[in-house]
Design brief:
It is built from 14 helices and five strands. It is mainly alpha-helical and 318 residues long. It has two domains: 214 residues, Rossmann fold; 83 residues, Tyrosyl-Transfer RNA Synthetase, CATH 1.10.240. The strands form two sheets. The protein has a three-stranded parallel β-sheet. A two-stranded parallel sheet has the order 4-5. The longest helix is centred in the last third of the chain and has 30 residues. It starts with a strand and ends with a helix. The protein binds tryptophanyl-5'AMP.
């Protein structure tokens, strides 16, 4: 049976190594294991990003940057479909259809909404309704697998619930139930302060950071004095090396936080450098990046429009 994979990232800033290990790396690993008939859809979730960015230059720049990032980490536009959410209007259309079968209390149970409310943030209708647009993103493609970090798990459950609810209400089997894929050990990548790495906490290490930026971030990692192994340094190190590989280093440098941080800078830089260089090269040919997105839009639209037509028949507007 062929398998369909879909995931996405919001173009709300530069991706960090939390995005990479938690999700983006899986996009590439899964792509490289595709069998014939399988599909890998990788989306730039710009309409989701619009909840956070209301500046046209920033939106354009972030979107293009994310397309370059995808290519730089190894997403191959021949094997995968890279596309912009806003290029496929079926997403917002299906999102609307889902709104009509969804209740407010159900959306009020979303972690993202509860967090925003707890922080007394003014929440836009778009942000409140985020899970319905995300359900449309996923369900339009008959997706089987959604590779994401832990924080997106609930959103995939919303997509499953919505598929079930739609199928039940309209007595149909229109939507397939997607499964979430999170990888143990990286589902929540910690930031420099030990909390979840997140753009909004200012505790990130950029996925394409320069050596100077890596050094600055690593030297800022919060260390708990008194223990032999600085927990937050070690947690980050484990993203790059196995326990067995790290054991001699940490054994030889018990309590020597500076030496351990230096080693971590070295390892992060060695890991990022090839991607950073590839990215610099890709950024020199922007026309090619635009062409990838244009082609991705055509491929994504073909699938999404077909599914939307099916839905329209089921609900009786077509
Ligand atoms: P976004 O843009 O916030 O994050 C992109 C991906 O990175 C993961 N992630 C992390 N994983 C582990 N540790 C961390 N510290 C960490 N921080 C971020 C996220 O879990 C995510 O997988 N709603 C989505 C984008 C989206 C989407 C979709 C994803 C829109 N439509 C459809 C899948 C399918 C989001 O805001 O991700």
């Amino acid at each position: 049976m062929s398998k369909i994979i879909l995931s996405g990232v919001k173009p709300t800033g530069r991706p960090h190594i939390g995005n990479y290990f938690g999700a983006m790396k899986q996009f590439v690993d899964l792509q490289n294991k595709l069998a014939s008939g399988d599909h890998n859809f990788i989306m730039i979730a710009d309409y989701h990003g619009l909840n956070f960015i209301h500046d046209q230059a920033t939106m354009r720049e972030n979107t293009l940057n994310l397309a370059i990032d995808y290519l730089a980490i190894g997403i191959d536009p021949v094997k995968s479909t890279i596309f912009k959410q806003s290029d496929v209007s079926a997403h917002t259309e299906l999102g609307w259809i889902f709104n009509t079968i969804t209740t407010m209390p159900y959306l009020m149970r979303a972690h993202a909404f509860k967090d925003a409310e707890a922080k007394n943030k003014e929440i836009s209708v778009g942000a409140f309704d985020y899970p319905m647009l995300m359900a449309a993103d996923i369900l339009l493609y008959n997706t089987d697998i959604v590779p994401v970090g832990q924080d997106q798990k609930q959103h995939v459950e919303y997509a499953r619930d919505t598929a079930l609810k739609f199928n039940h209400i309209f007595k149909t089997e229109t939507f397939k139930l997607p499964d979430v894929l999170t990888i143990e050990g990286v589902a929540v990548v910690p930031g420099t302060d030990g909390q979840k790495m997140s753009k909004s906490y200012g505790n990130t290490i950029g996925l394409f950071a320069t050596r100077e930026e890596i050094t600055k971030a690593v030297m800022g990692i919060v260390t708990d004095s008194g223990s032999d192994v600085p927990k937050n340094v070690y947690a980050m190190h484990r993203l790059l090396k196995s326990e067995a590989e790290l054991a001699p280093l940490y054994e030889a440098n018990k309590g020597k936080y500076k030496a351990l941080k230096d080693a971590l800078v070295e390892d992060i830089d060695a890991f990022i450098k090839p991607m950073r260089e590839r990215r610099e090269e890709l950024a020199r040919d922007i026309d090619k990046v635009h062409a990838v997105l244009a082609e991705g839009a055509i491929k994504a639209r073909a699938q999404a429009d077909m599914k939307l037509a099916e839905v329209k028949k089921v609900i009786g507007v077509l």
